[in-house]
Every structure is written in structure tokens, then in C-alpha cells.
């Protein structure tokens, strides 16, 4: 089992319920195919750096999961088939990235926070 992070940009015309249903669909697909969800983080509506399909905003969703190395190709096919997905990106996480993400989620200082002026 390898550690991965997936960022998905959904079309901004989705309602809140549709956005949650799409998240649920992909998390279910991961767990049904032998993966484990570590963390999910819906960022919500953000501006895009450049227009994609004539849209200037998108609904961002980031999830961290563990899965066999052959699984990402199957998930990629499902993401490409879904018309609500504008873009997606997989990132393989090494042990340091997994440790960093865990510390960041738990609130432990990671060493890269900005100093607060008193």
C-alpha cells in the first residue's frame, strides 16, 4: 500500500449536495477497491489560475489515501469519465510528506508557520 494525495477540481455549477455526493462517490470507490481513506479536505469554491472549459472558478477537494500502486489507473479512468470533474492530480507521498500532513492536521507546529508579530 502506497500513500497518495489526490486533488480534484469539480465544475463550479454543482450544488452543495451534488458536491458532497461526488466526494462520497469517489471515497466509496477507493474503499471498495482496497484503499483506505486517511483524510479528506473539501476546500470549496476557489478561483482558477486560468479558465478551464470557460469557467474561472472551481470546487476544490483534496484527499489523502492509501492504495495499491495499480489502483490509481482505475481511479483515473473514473475521474476522466465524470463530466463534473474539470481537473485532477495525483501525488505520491513519501514518508516525510505523510508525517508532515499528520502533524499539520493534529495542530503540532511543522516549522513552516509564519511568525506572529506581537
Please provide a written account of the structure.
There is one protein chain. By secondary structure, the protein is α+β, with helices and mostly antiparallel strands. Helices cover 34% and strands 41% of the residues. It contains three helices and four strands. The chain has helices at 16-32, 71-81, 95-106; strands spanning 2-10, 36-52, 55-67, 85-93. Strands 2-3-1-4 form a four-stranded antiparallel beta sheet. The N and C termini lie far apart (45 Å).
Structural class: alpha+beta
* Helix fraction by DSSP (H/I, runs of at least 4): 25-40%
Strand order of the largest sheet: 2-3-1-4
- Calculate the mean pLDDT score and round it: 89
Distance between the termini: 45 Å
Note poorly predicted spans.
Answer: none
Write the element-wise H/E pattern from the N-terminal end onward.
EHEEHEH
What is the strand tally?
4
CA radius of gyration is 16 Å
Note the main sheet.
4 strands, antiparallel
In DSSP terms (H or I, runs of 4 or more residues), the helix count works out at 3
Our estimate of the beta-strand percent is 35-45%
Overall outline: globular
Architecture blueprint of SSEs:
Blueprint: E1 2-10, H1 16-32, E2 36-52, E3 55-67, H2 71-81, E4 85-93, H3 95-106
Antiparallel strand pairs: 1-3, 1-4, 2-3
